[in-house]
Amino acid sequence: MAPPPITAVLFDFHQTLVCGGDASGWLQDGWRRAGRGDDPVGALGDDAAADLSDFLDRIWEHASVIDPASARDESPEQHRAVFLETVAGCPGVDRDLAEALYLGMPDRWDSFDDTVPVLDELRARGVRTAIVSNVGFDLRPVIERNHIVVDALVLSYEVGSVKPDAGIFTYALDLLEVEAAQTLMVGDSWRDDSGAAALGIRTLLLPRTDGPVHGLESVLRLVGP
User: Fold this and answer.
1) What are phi and psi of 199, to 5 degrees?
2) What Pfam families does the entry give (predicted)?
3) 87-113, pLDDT tens digit by residue?
4) In terms of DSSP H, where are the helices of the chain?
5) C-beta separation of 44 from 92 below 8 A
6) Which of 1, 84, 93, 192 is the most exposed place for a label (fewest CB within 10 A)?
7) Angle at alpha carbon of residue 224, lines to 188 and 216, rounded to 5°
8) Is 18 helix (H, G, I), strand (E, B) or coil?
């Protein structure tokens, strides 16, 4: 027997619908926000500035070393604290710069070129959509700035459940009023998003891409006309 048709799609947010942005630009923005008179390269040197940018580019992978259970995504306070602790050991990063980097982080998150077109097409096909994100702060300003429209928004710190726990996925299913077998989960993390598969939700993992297109058109092929 063929599986039931997909009538709803759940999307991870960071590195699925939006990219993290250019880390060197993030560092420069943070440097200015912290009131530094020089630029990072001039102050730290080429190699140190490049190393710090590379570290920031993978900040949440580094954060997982000290926070493997993603407790940072349970509250704004924990999210900020884990970030600050993660960058504290980087040469050239003091408390003021770390705070400035944290405040400016969401400003760097821009949607992939295929995000809005794919969401628009899903809506045209009558497919319901939701963002299901492990995050410790409000994504709504980023969502609105990027003109992203979905039927439901499920943020871990608001619902008290962090992926891969089943609770965050079942919360989204209840909001959309769909069954697991009729739903597709789209994310980038085998560890976090595989929690959907454990509930019988078909799951598509799209590894991180650094270009402007993330390959989200594959969702449309899975959903069908």
Assistant:
1) -95, 0
2) Hydrolase
3) 987 888 889 999 999 999 999 999 999
4) 23-33, 40-44, 46-57, 59-66, 76-87, 95-104, 115-124, 140-145, 156-159, 166-176, 190-197, 217-223
5) yes
6) 1
7) 30
8) strand
Burial of 216 (0-12, 13-18, 19+ CB in 10 A): buried
Q: Which amino acid is at 193?
A: D
pTM reported for the whole predicted model:
0.93
- Which residue ranges form the domains of the chain, and what is each CATH number? 8-19+109-223 (3.40.50.1000), 23-108 (no CATH)
Strands 110-111 and 18-19, bridge-based pairing:
antiparallel
By C-alpha distance, which of 196, 179, 186 is closest to 223? Answer: 186
Which residues have CB under 8 Å from 53's CB, separation 6+?
Answer: 23, 24, 26, 27, 40
DSSP class of residue 155 equals E
